Backbone:
């Protein structure tokens, strides 16, 4: 069971970071259909050494604060833009809203919108926001009157966690070819020609199997052990308990 838990909850960076394990985006304006990261919605405030700056106003070379207490220079910012072609958005494109104070009494300090596959750094691990959806404090949503969705993703020299609306979220985990899913992939290729080394994850990434799989595994473990530490399950239950205050 120990081996099984490690494989399920702490897979290798390659297995975790592949977007095939997560949602598949629809077709965006100027982007290729298929798989790829998206991340922080336009308008999201990111912490820098001089205060919060909206992500669309950040530039290559600007410094952002990390949860390690260090400032890192932005190496590149990937962009993805989507326009609705019909009456409904694709589920994989609609952002997940983390309501103000959904994570704790202070975090985030404003509604935070992330793409479904983007990870939060919480309880010592990285958990994709799609695995924390509870239908109230964390749920798919769009800001009012949104007719276009634009995402931005920050690349640093290493995989880090930065503060977006006060909440710790991951930066771009660079792996072979992943930059090609962004609208401005040609800019990256021009700035950094040739193969780029894959990054090591900032922290263990958990939750790729979905909550149903996790619960089944937990029941299996409970039959053999008195207590099993499952970070994603504990985090989900803690946030879900707070969600009661968001019900009208």
Residues:
């Amino acid at each position: 069971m120990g081996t099984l838990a490690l494989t399920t909850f702490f897979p290798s960076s390659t297995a975790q970071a592949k977007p095939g394990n997560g949602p598949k985006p629809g077709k965006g304006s100027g982007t290729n259909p298929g798989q790829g990261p998206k991340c922080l919605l336009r308008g999201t405030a990111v912490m820098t050494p001089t205060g919060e700056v909206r992500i669309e106003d950040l530039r290559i070379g600007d410094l952002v604060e990390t949860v390690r207490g260090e400032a890192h220079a932005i190496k590149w910012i990937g962009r993805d833009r989507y326009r609705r072609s019909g009456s409904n958005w694709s589920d994989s494109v609609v952002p997940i809203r983390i309501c103000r104070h959904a994570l704790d009494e202070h975090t985030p300090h404003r509604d935070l919108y992330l793409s479904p596959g983007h990870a939060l750094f919480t309880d010592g691990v990285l958990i994709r926001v799609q695995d924390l959806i509870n239908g109230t404090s964390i749920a798919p949503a769009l800001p009012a009157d949104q007719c276009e969705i634009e995402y931005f993703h920050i690349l640093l020299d290493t995989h880090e966690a930065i503060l977006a609306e006060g909440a710790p979220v991951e930066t771009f985990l660079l792996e072979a070819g992943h930059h090609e899913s962004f609208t401005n992939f040609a800019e990256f290729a021009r700035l950094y020609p040739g193969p780029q080394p894959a990054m090591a994850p900032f922290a263990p990434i958990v939750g790729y199997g979905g909550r149903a799989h996790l619960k089944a595994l937990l029941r299996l473990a409970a039959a053999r052990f008195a207590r099993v530490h499952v970070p994603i399950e504990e985090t989900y239950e803690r946030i879900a308990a707070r969600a009661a205050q968001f019900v009208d």
About this structure: The first strand starts at residue 40 and ends at 41.
